Amino acid sequence: MVKAIVELDERTNRIVNIVKAKHGLKDKSEAIGRIALEYEEMLLEPALRPEFIEKMGERQKEKIVKVTDFKKRYGL
């Protein structure tokens, strides 16, 4: 785990405290971690997320289905 000393302005400190209280977290470190996770979900491309890569790996192992008439098969 990385330890860091950070300086927060008053507004940012209040936001971190609100996140901490809202989610019942123990300390500001957990609140900052929670903020980072939410930011990741909002900002990062799906292709960059580890869950996406794992999901695509599972898809590659699935059996291939040949479809001659896509519209007919899927009712389009």
What is the CA-atom radius of gyration, in angstroms?
Answer: 21 Å
The stretches of 5 or more residues where confidence is low (pLDDT under 50) are none
- Classify the beta-strand content into a percent band: under 5%
Tell me, briefly, the overall form: elongated
* Sheet of most strands: none
Structural class: mainly alpha
Helix run count:
4
Whole-Å distance between the termini? Answer: 52 Å
* Helix content range: 55-70%
- Assembly context of the chains: single chain
Let me know the number of strands.
Answer: 0
- What does the average pLDDT come to? 89
Number of domains: 1
- Please trace the helix and strand order, writing H or E for each element: HHHH
Overview of this protein structure:
With 76 residues, the protein is mostly helical. It has one domain (10-73). The protein is built from four helices and no strands. The protein has helices spanning 10-22, 28-43, 50-61, 70-73. Helix 1 crosses helix 2 (28-43). The longest helix is centred in the middle third of the chain and has 16 residues, at 28-43.
